[in-house]
Structures are given as C-alpha cells and as structure tokens.
Amino acid sequence: MEAGAKPKISGARLCCSCNQRRAALKRPKTLEQICRECFYEVFEEEIHQVIVENQLFKPGERIAIGASGGKDSTVLAYVLSELNRRHNYGLDLFLLSVDEGITGYRDDSLETVKRNELQYGLPLKIVSYKDLYGWTMDEIVKMIGLKNNCTFCGVFRRQALDRGAALLKVDKVATGHNADDIAETVLLNILRGDIARLGRCTSITTGEDGPIPRCKPFKYTYEKEIISTYAYFKKLDYFSTECIYSPNAYRGFAREFIKDLERIRPRAILDIIKSGENFRIATSTKMPEQGTCERCGYISSQKWCKACVLLEGLNRGLPKLGIGRSRGLNSDVKKDHLENVMELGELVFINFGQGLSIMAVIYERCGKGLLFEFGAHRITGEGSVTRGQHLPVRYLVFASASIPPMASSAPPDSAITGQNSRKSLGFLANAKKHKHSFIQFAAMTGILLLSIRSLGQKYRIHDLQEDTAALKQEQASLTERINYIKRGLRHEASLDPTGVFASRIRLLFGEDN
Amino acid sequence: MQLTLEFGGGLELLCQSVKIHNVNVDLPKGAEKLTMKDLLSWVSTNLIKERPEMFMKGESVRPGVLVLVNDCDWELSGQLDTTLEEKDVVVFISTLHGG
C-alpha cells in the first residue's frame, strides 16, 4: 500500500463490474474487486451455470438438501430455493438433517436447521444415529475415545443421509461441499493412496448407478465467498461451532494446508480440483467391486458394509473392529497373506508341533516368509504362528541356527498376549510393550538355564566318583609295587658284608623294619 | 481509538463466546495512526483467551480467517497495512470450522 493512501474511503476502489459502488470483496477465483450487489448476482449466476451445464437437476425432481445447520448447507438451501424460483427449475426441495447425537453441537445446530425450515419454507426431515444404529455419537465416543470417532461418524452419516433420502423418496441429494472441501478430499485420497475414491471424489454427481445420486452444486465455489459475503453480508442464519469431537481429525491438517496454499495463490484450490479430475486411473488397476452388504443391503465392496462392521464391533464390545487395516470380521486374511497383517517387531508364538513351541519377535520379512528372532537365536523350520486374537496359521520360519531344546518348558497357547504392535519396534521396545509376555519369557529362560546347570552338576559328581575309584585302585597298586621294591632292596642289603648299604636303607625307609 | 470488533464463525469461542467487543485501542508509542498489524497484536494480547493459534499465524491472522474492515475485504485495503480510524468496525470470521 502506498503511503498516505486511504484505501477504505468510499470510492477509492470501485467495483470492476458496475464501476459505481465501492468494492467490498476480492474474489479468490478471479482476483476481481467487486461490490456486494454485483457479487450476489455473479455468485448466484455462477451456481446456476454450474447446475445447467452439468444437468444436475431435471424438472419435477424431488431434491433433498443435506442440511447440517452450518454455513455451506445453509447457503445452499438459500441459493437453491432462490434459483428454483427464479429460473423455474420445477424442483421439490426438502431439507434433510442427520442427528449424530452430539450434545452441545448437533442439538444446537439442528435448531438452526429448524429455523431454516421456516425461513425458506422447505420441509425438514431429521434422521438420527440413535434410531438407525441404536448408538449416539456421545455413546460411541464414551466407548472408543477420541481417536477414531470421526471414522464412525463419517461412515454412519453417509449411510444415514442415504436412508433419510430414501424415506423422503427423493431423486437426488444435494450437499454443500465447496471447492475447498473437494481440494482437501483430493489431497487426502492421495495421502491415503485411495485410488477408488480419488477417481470419483471430483465428480460433481456421484452414485448415479446407485439408488440415490448425490451432487455438489458448490463444487467450484470458494469457501471464502460462501462464508464471508453470503452468510455474513446477507446475514443468513447459520451455526458455526466446531464439532466437539473433531480436533483429532486427520482432515484438519489437509484443511489448513489448503488454506495456506490459498493465501499464497488463490487459484491453487481450483487447480487441485482440476488435477484430481485429470487423474487417469490405469485400466489395469484392480478396483474394489461394488456389491451389497449381506446384512443391511447397503452398497458395499466387502461382505459387510463398513457401517455394519463398525456397528458389530460396537455391539460386541470390540470397537477396534473395522478401524485401520482390514482385520477381524471382514478381513478375508488368507493364510498366505498373514505376513502382510503381521508387523515387524511384533511378538508372536510359534508352535512347531510335538509340544515344541517358542515365543519370538518378527525380525524380517523375506521372500518366502518371515524371519523370527528369539533372543539372540534365529530359528528355522516350519511352524504355526499365533498372534493376539488370530487363529494359528501354518507358517514357514526361516534362519540359520537350530532350535534351542526347550520342548517341555513352553507355556500353553492361551498365555499369549502378543498383541498387534503398530510399527516395527526394536526388541527392547517390544519387550517393554509386551511386558507380561516378556516377564514370562524371561522366567522360562531362567528356569531352563537352571535345570541345564543342575543336570550338568549331576553328571560331574558321577564323573568325580568314578575318578576317585580309579585313583584308589591306582594308589593300591602303587603301594604294592613300592612294598615289593622295598623288600627286594632289603634282601640285597642283607647280602652286603660291610653293612653300610643296610644301614643306609634303614635310614631311608625309617625304623619300621 | 474507539473500535467495534466482531468475531464469528467460531472465533468468538476464543474470546469467552462474546461476539461483539467495543474496545478502546491506544496508538502505539510514536505512531500517528493505527494499522491492522497493531490491532492484531492488541487483540491477541487483550482479547484472545485460549488457543491463540486458531486466530494468529506469524504476525497475521491464520489463513482461512476472513477480515472485513467496515464490511470491506481487507485484501482490498492492504491487509496488515490497512489504517484504522475512529469508530471503524472490524470483523473476523473463521472459515476453518465445519460447514
């Protein structure tokens, strides 16, 4: 800014569109300076263009607007009802809300949606997690903590929205995802290596082959424009509290990164979306097949849909089920894929049969199987490997040294507590982690060493006894020989006439004779 | 200098859930005018009670926080160099909270 300039004085910068009014906003998409009135016009017209060009709606359709009470869906509800009237789309619009059951967050934002219902005259339908799944998010968080709660919420919400839409008998669901959200999702799918989602996350309409397609009329609309000018200048009633359970969400990092990029170069957001659209997934890439869940009939690429797996975990008290790598119910872990499930540094239990079993740490992954480490030893042979809650699976165990002889001292299978450790840890770190098993392991080794030692001592005593007997025998024979020599010498001395030799012998042998 | 500050989009949570603050900000020593840069450091010392990283990043606001000076995007008035005058209204809105 040049010194002395007073930029905010009325008239200093005029709208580049009407050239009459004072500019109030710099559009991130075009860097144009524009006044409020012109902005509303351009903003609504652009969304109309997006709707027309992409044929998002057909006359007479019933459309549900996914309404959270937040800024995007509030603005979407306003803009769609406005455009529907202005351009005679001929749509029947509904508001559809999901009640996750988060006290202090969703209950408040639902109040906003209820006000929107009256303000825009759109009928509202609320579906709740409690009704659909029997659990509120409050209850889920109480059970699983704050680590993977967003996974539950996201999976359940997606399905809840579809079920609500089915109840409303709508033809399509429109969601308030904006350009920033889509750019974030593109990045997240790259970071997660999720090819299937990367391919479809930039489509403006998704699920066209499914029962109820979804569309994103705000695909090219910047969050900044939605919030600032619209929700603020038009004073739309929206709710803006952060979800009380979300601070741990992975998405937050991507979100912040996108905002940093936007500050440096606002077009970056549209460019990321463009990049996402232009990804060409190789036709040889194996994509998950879309089927239906055996349990609830929802679309799923697995036997059970994600929501059913998560729900089963909750109901069985195993909330980790379905989180992270596929394990447990849905994990079609084939035996020969076991190595992909086990992690380096994990403590496992190897059974070689015939009562021979040891506890070992996975040391290395090699071509044919896994290399295990047992103390300083490497083990070889074919054995079955047990870990945590898994069933034993036959496994090739490789390496150099032979199996230490400890057949009888191995603990029973049930004593294993080697759980899945997340990353490859050193032996010491693992020992710390699996303290219980490690103490058991150390005690076993101690007992083994003691018994080997006592066995050795027993053998030594036996040897010593034998040695003593032999020595005694030798001593006896030596005494006999000495006596014989003595006798011979005395006889020779008695033959000597001088008597000198005899006295000398008497002196040497003592007075005994 | 009398100013009206408004926090929205969740930022009000950082200043004890009060959205509108009527404040009196003194000019920095030796300065003739108050800039947005001065105001931001005043706000982060005097108004932000928790999680200052949600509001500031470096010496500017965190990317994703929108600033309006008298209902006008501060990107049009020079951002940190924007000069403020008596009875100006400054609005901060966060876009970082869910939509």
TrEMBL record, chain A:
Protein name as it appears in the record: Cytoplasmic tRNA 2-thiolation protein 1
Metabolic or biological pathway, per its Swiss-Prot or TrEMBL entry: tRNA modification; 5-methoxycarbonylmethyl-2-thiouridine-tRNA biosynthesis
EC main group: transferase
Family matches, as SUPFAM superfamilies: Adenine nucleotide alpha hydrolases-like (SSF52402)
Gene Ontology molecular function terms on file: nucleotidyltransferase activity; tRNA binding
Keywords: Cytoplasm, RNA-binding, Transferase, tRNA processing, tRNA-binding
Task performed by this protein: Plays a central role in 2-thiolation of mcm(5)S(2)U at tRNA wobble positions of tRNA(Lys), tRNA(Glu) and tRNA(Gln). Directly binds tRNAs and probably acts by catalyzing adenylation of tRNAs, an intermediate required for 2-thiolation. It is unclear whether it acts as a sulfurtransferase that transfers sulfur from thiocarboxylated URM1 onto the uridine of tRNAs at wobble position.
PANTHER family: ATPASES OF THE PP SUPERFAMILY-RELATED, CYTOPLASMIC TRNA 2-THIOLATION PROTEIN 1
E.C. number(s) listed in UniProt: 2.7.7.-
Family: Belongs to the TtcA family. CTU1/NCS6/ATPBD3 subfamily.
Classification via HAMAP family: CTU1
Domain Cytoplasmic tRNA 2-thiolation protein 1 C-terminal: 291-321
tRNA(Ile)-lysidine/2-thiocytidine synthase N-terminal domain sequence ranges: 63-247
Source species of the chain: Corchorus capsularis
Superkingdom, natural source: Eukaryota
UniProtKB/TrEMBL annotation, chain B:
Top-level taxon of the source organism: Eukaryota
One Pfam family cited in the UniProt record for this chain: Urm1
Record keyword tRNA processing present: yes
Keywords attached to this entry: Cytoplasm, Isopeptide bond, tRNA processing, Ubl conjugation pathway
Cell compartment(s), UniProt: Cytoplasm
Classification via InterPro entries: Beta-grasp_dom_sf, Mopterin_synth/thiamin_S_b, Urm1
1-thioglycine PTM positions: G99
Pathway per the UniProt entry: tRNA modification; 5-methoxycarbonylmethyl-2-thiouridine-tRNA biosynthesis
Entry GO terms, CC: cytosol
Post-translational modification: C-terminal thiocarboxylation occurs in 2 steps, it is first acyl-adenylated (-COAMP) via the hesA/moeB/thiF part of the MOCS3/UBA4 homolog, then thiocarboxylated (-COSH) via the rhodanese domain of the MOCS3/UBA4 homolog.
Sequence position, cross-link Glycyl lysine isopeptide (Gly-Lys) (interchain with K-? in acceptor proteins): G99
Coarse class of the protein's main subcellular location: cytoplasm
Biological process per Gene Ontology, one example term: tRNA thio-modification
PANTHER family for the chain: RURM1 PROTEIN
HAMAP family: Urm1
Similarity-based family: Belongs to the URM1 family.
Functional summary from the UniProt entry: Acts as a sulfur carrier required for 2-thiolation of mcm(5)S(2)U at tRNA wobble positions of cytosolic tRNA(Lys), tRNA(Glu) and tRNA(Gln). Serves as sulfur donor in tRNA 2-thiolation reaction by being thiocarboxylated (-COSH) at its C-terminus by MOCS3. The sulfur is then transferred to tRNA to form 2-thiolation of mcm(5)S(2)U. Also acts as a ubiquitin-like protein (UBL) that is covalently conjugated via an isopeptide bond to lysine residues of target proteins.
Protein name, UniProt field: Ubiquitin-related modifier 1 homolog
Native organism: Corchorus capsularis (Jute)
Lineage: Eukaryota, Viridiplantae, Streptophyta, Embryophyta, Tracheophyta
